[in-house]
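Issue 218. Parser rejects a valid record. Input:
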Amino acid sequence: MRRSLNALGWSLLGGLLAGTLDILYAIGFWSAYDVPARRILQSVAAGLLGRDAFAGGARTAALGLLLHYVIAACMALTYGWAARDARPLRDRPWRFGALYGLALYVLMNFVVVPLSVSPRGASLPMAWMAWSVLAHIVLVGWPCAWFARRGWDGHWSSRRHGLIPAAS
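Output the parser choked on:
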C-alpha cells in the first residue's frame, strides 16, 4: 500500500511538472502572436464552456488553468498506473515517454478537442502543430514516464547503468 501511495504521489508531481511546462510552452508560443496568457487559459475552459469562456475574465481563465492541471494529472496518473505492472515503461522512460507524449497529442487533438464544445476557429499555424508534437513528447510524455519510474522504483535512473545510486 505504501508503495502505491508513493507512486501516486510521484505521478501527481509528474503531472504538476508536465502541466506547468506545457502551459508555459503554450503561453510563450502564443505571446509571439500577441495572444495574452488569459486568452490561452480561457481557451482551455472553452472546452467545457464554449465561447462563453472568453467573456468570463479571470474566473474562466482560472477555471482553464484548473482544468489544464486536472488533465495533466490524469495523464501522469494513467502512465503511472500502466507502469505499475509494465516494467518496460519504467525501464525505458525516454522511449515510452516519447511514445506516450505522441499518443497524448493525437488523443487531445483528434479526439478530446473535437468532442468538446470548444469553438472552432481559423486554422492554426503549422509551427504551432509541429512544436506541439515535440512539446507533448518532451514536456508531457517524458515527465510522466520519469516520475512514474521514480514512484515505483524509488530512483531516477536504471540500476543497471548506475548513473544515480538507488535510494535505500
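Fixed in the parser; the record now loads. Helices lie at 2-31, 37-49, 57-85, 87-91, 93-115, 126-153.
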